[in-house]
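tool=predict chain=A
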Amino acid sequence: MLSRTADNLYWLARYVERAEYLARILEATQRLTALPLAYVGTSNEWASAVATAGCASAFFARFDEANEENVTHFLAFSADNPSSIRSCFESARTNARAVRTALTVEMWDAINGAWLELKRYGNGPASREEMMRFLRWVQETSMLFDGSAYRTMLRNDAYWFSRLGVFVERADNTARILDVKFHLLLPEEEHVGGPLDYFQWSAILRSVSALTAYHWVYRDSLKPWLVADLLILNKQMPRSLSSCYSNLVSFLDDIASAYGRQGPTQRHARNVHTRLENSKIDGLFQSGLHEFITGFLADNNHLNTMVNEQYLN
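tool=predict ok
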């Protein structure tokens, strides 16, 4: 496969996954801000949404205040934000057009149809209810594309590079959600286990479709260390860091087997996966969860760089 084709497939998958992540963040923020003030607390949920999306610097360079109107426009519809939902779908379609013959009909229809439908929304829905429907549509579009890829692609290098994009992006997203929860959402004076803590953790779990899974696994009230355990170390949870890296190791090994050569990318992914497998949640809290997540994000970004250097350039 041409490196250019692999690059297009990799970034196509990343942009679709990122659009879904942004929609989930905005939906969770909408839920939190709709609660009574007694449950919301004093933190600015809209500022935390921007921080979770990883574009706070770009946002505050354009806006003085993080409110619903500004954040929703910037993360969903702004053409000036290269990571907005609109920009993600535009970039995804551009990459899809470049590799049209490498996609199945179902995959192309999903991404091209999404781009055409997105134009109908213009600069954004007129009401909060319409905005919630839009965010749900974005998530459904991502799942339609992902399901089409899973059910219709040949298990060859085109599929494997597409899956790499999904799981590199998903790991980054899950780590950012956890980091912002611990350091921005919960005010210092709020006690862990209080009503504010409960509603914010519920919103975070909903944002990764994990609230039901949490109760199935732990059969307990919401506790920060158990939520962290689910989203970091539990392989059964599809969006956990451990699950993402289990998949990344598997797909990188498939690529190495097809091309007849292991490389630094495979070794790095395996090292990160091994560290996750050998970690315990108590140890992560004792050594500092923020420090762990910061290190993980650096490792994940490094994996992206190595994939680019080894295969995509």
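The CA atoms of residues 77 and 124 lie 7 Å apart. The mean pLDDT is 89.
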